[in-house]
Amino acid sequence: MVAVRVTDDSGAFISEELAFAAGGSPVTCKVWLAPGRYRLAARDESGATGEAKLDVAGADASTLTIDLR
Amino acid sequence: MAGCAILLGIDEPIWRPGEPVETAVRRPIPRIVHSDAAGRFRAAGLAAGTHSVAARADGHGLFMGSIDVAAEAPTPFDIALPAPAAVVGRVVDSAGRPLEGARVHTKGPRSFTFLESASGADGRYRLEGSPPVAPRCKPTMGRRRRRRPRSSSTRGRASLGSHLSRLARDPRPRRRRDGAPLRGWLVRAVEASLNGRVFGLPKITTDDQGRFVVPRCRDVEYVVEAIEPANPQKGEDFEEVRAASGSAERVRPGLAEVVIVVTPETRPDCYVTATVEDPEGRPIGNATVLAGVEGSAAMSQIPCNPATAAFKLGPLAAARKHRLRIEAPGFTRKLRSIGRPRPQYHKDLGAIRMERGGTLLVEVRRADGPLPEILNGFAGSGAGDAPGEGFGESLQRDGSLFRSKPLAPGKYSLVFLGGDVARARTPVEVVDGKETRVDVLLRSGHARTIAVTRAGVRRSAWWPCG
């Protein structure tokens, strides 16, 4: 299980989603966001963390990948 | 019924001293689920077989039963919560005099099925919504605690993971390096990332050599805590002695043996007392007082005298900071920190004045469709809301209206989570003594899939214990 924390561009907390393995790796989750810029931080139980930036402009089927290190 | 909490596998112990680990690891893990708005619940991942079930919800009695889970198809199981009942009685001492402040509680697995109260000045108590079991009475307030001989150091030993299997199977007692083994102490092992936030914790006890087993460990850091039973004869309820913590270690499952050292500083013998008052100085007898160790989300409820609103927290270990959370209907939540007390210290905090604060009434509409059936609203006071602290105060939903409990005056951010609505924050301000009405317009969000990979790090896996 991985926790994905979503903050807006100013660092204000927006949401925290839990990502689970769906029939294998990688673990995934879905988040619904209004247009804007966001920062995502992921953390798993072992303490490994990863970060990514996300721009939401409109409907988009792409997948954002975060690497934990 | 929405919001009913259901616990499965409630009374199944994880490990009994002397029991082979191979037997213990096959036992199901207790798990808790909540019913949705339609009253449905789903507990996935249960092993086939018989499981004990408990369910409770505010305003209803406790349900306890068992379920036979089939191996192939989902097993339907309807739960009808009984009407709430009350147990009333009186606590007297050996001379027949009423005993004030005695703690009266039900026997059973705490944290879920547990109910407790405190006797008033006439010794009378009342347990609301009691499960159908005989209450236990334990006068913990105003009673002198039996002094134990002090030792410079006492050691209990423990190991995690596969090494434990070897220890558990080894019939030869190991040579002690120092101190005496802690027999019959309770052990709490929680993943460090959970920050103490756990439900249905298994009961683990040290054996005659001070050893214990924590099966089903994962390859993550744990906080392992040895807890002195408050009463060696009746210290069966784990939660009962949470406040009487001994000592804790942060460890990772591995081949190294964990040694938990208990010193006079970690031996609990400090007390803190206070009373809860309204802004006019009147006692609030129905206040709820919760206490826990600083840095841990786990908190225990402290009985509050219904007549004087006085409570007594302890015994506490001197080596730790503690925190208090006080709640009362119609008042804002109050938080207090308690610094490290000296051994055998008794501190009176005096009167804790509650504030009435203000409330929020939020009407939520959606621009492009109906509101999701499951939509949760929160009012957070901090810009970031510290990790693990949740989203802030939960709002009570009634159709499209969301109402808050009394909040301290100040600026808040509203967050609504559920379905495909866009996650966004709405700033609001709570005014003292007033109800602030706010309109929030939700919109559909754009869905993004987040994939998380573990590049260059060891993958998490279930620890192959036993």
Describe what this molecule looks like in 3D.
The complex is a heterodimer of chains A (69) and B (466). Chain A has 69 residues and is mostly beta strands. Chain A has no helices and six strands. In chain A, a hairpin with a 4-residue loop joins strand 4 and strand 5. The mean pLDDT of chain A is 81. Chain B has two helices and 32 strands. In chain B, strand 18 and strand 19 form a beta hairpin. The relative contact order of chain B is 0.11. Strand 6 of chain A pairs parallel with strand 32 of chain B.
- Looking at the structure, what is the overall shape of chain A? globular
Radius of gyration based on Cα positions of chain B: 24 Å
Secondary-structure-derived class of chain A? mainly beta
**How many alpha or pi helices of chain A?**
0
Cα separation of the termini of chain A: 15 Å
Order of helices and strands of chain A: EEEEEE
DSSP strand content of chain B = 35-45%
Low-confidence stretches of chain B: 130-178, 231-245, 383-390, 456-466
Q: What is the total tally of β strands of chain B? A: 32
Amino- and carboxy-terminal Cα gap of chain B: 41 Å
Strand line-up of the largest beta sheet of chain A:
3-2-1-4-5
Average pLDDT taken over every residue of chain A: 81
DSSP helical segment count of chain B: 2
**Cα shape of chain B:** globular
Could you give the order of strands across the largest sheet of chain B?
2-1-3-4
Number of strands of chain A: 6
Provide the β-strand percentage band of chain A.
Answer: over 45%
Helix percent of chain B reads under 10%
- Unreliable stretches of chain A (pLDDT < 50, length at least 5) are none
Oligomerization state: heterodimer
Structural key phrases:
heterodimer; A: 69 residues; mainly beta; 5-stranded antiparallel β-sheet; 6 strands; 0% helix; 65% strand; globular; B: 466 residues; 4-stranded antiparallel β-sheet; 2 helices; disordered C terminus
